[in-house]
Specification:
Helix content is 31%, strand content 33%. A hairpin with a 2-residue loop joins strand 3 and strand 4. It contains four helices and seven strands. It is globular and about 40 Å long. It has a single domain, classed as Aminopeptidase. It starts with 5 loop residues before the first strand and ends with a strand. It is of the alpha+beta class and 150 residues long. The structure holds coenzyme A. The site of coenzyme A has 19 residues, from strand 4, helix 3 and helix 4.
C-alpha cells in the first residue's frame, strides 16, 4: 500500500495544494501560506509531500535542530485518508532523520485527535506529558517523542 506514494521535498509550486489540504484539515487553525513559505526556506529538507498518480495528497513538515527534530505538522487530504499516506511520509521522514544523525523526534498532538494519536502510537511515539491549553481554543496537547533509531 505504502509504495503507491512518491515522497519528495515540497517545492514552491506545491504551496497552493498544501494550503488546500491544510484548510480542509485544520479549518480556522490552518497555517497560512507565508508560514509554509518560511518553513520551506528554513526546514525545506524535511518539508515533504506525498504524491499519488501525480497529485499531492498529503504533506509533512519537520525541523531539525542539533540532534532533536520536531514534527511540526502532517495532514492528508480528507478523501485520501486511511490509505497509508501519513505512514509513508513518516517512514520517509525517519529515514531522512537517520541520514542526518538526528537522535530524537518530538511532537505535540491534540488530546482529542484520536486518529493522529493512534498513528503516532503505532509509530512508537510515547507520551511525555500533557500540555494544558496548548491550542488557541484552549484545548490541551500531549507531548510525545520517540528515538529516531529503534
Ligand atoms: C491523522 C492523519 C494524518 C492520518 O493520516 P492517514 O494517511 O489517514 O494515516 P494512515 O492511513 O497512514 O494510518 C496509519 C495509522 O494511523 C492510525 N489511524 C489513521 N486514521 C485513523 C482513524 N481515523 N482512527 C483511528 N486511527 C487512525 C491507525 O493506527 C493507522 O494504522 P492502521 O491502518 O494499521 O489501522 C489524518 O487523519 C489527517 O490528516 N488528519 C487531519 C490532520 C491532523 O489531525 N494531523 C495531525 C496533527 S498532529
Amino acid at each position: 500500500m505504502r509504495s503507491q506514494y512518491r515522497i519528495r521535498r515540497a517545492a514552491a509550486r506545491d504551496l497552493d495544494r498544501i494550503g488546500e489540504i491544510e484548510t480542509a484539515s485544520f479549518g480556522r487553525e490552518a497555517y497560512d501560506r507565508k508560514l509554509f513559505a518560511d518553513y520551506r526556506r528554513t526546514c525545506g529538507a524535511l518539508f515533504l509531500v506525498a504524491e499519488r498518480r501525480g497529485k499531492i495528497c498529503a504533506y509533512l513538515l519537520s525541523c531539525l535542530r542539533g540532534a532533536a527534530a520536531e514534527l511540526v505538522s502532517v495532514a492528508v487530504a480528507p478523501e485520501d485518508r486511511g490509505k497509508g499516506a501519513a505512514s509513508a511520509l513518516l517512514d520517509s521522514l525517519l529515514r531522512r532523520l537517520r541520514r542526518r544523525g538526528a537522535r530524537r523526534l518530538h511532537l505535540i498532538v491534540r488530546v482529542r485527535n484520536r486518529a493522529a494519536r493512534e498513528l503516532y502510537e503505532k509509530f512508537g511515539f510515547r507520551r511525555v506529558r500533557r500540555v494544558p491549553g496548548y491550542y488557541e481554543d484552549g484545548g490541551d496537547g500531549i507531548a510525545m517523542s520517540r528515538p529516531v533509531d529503534v
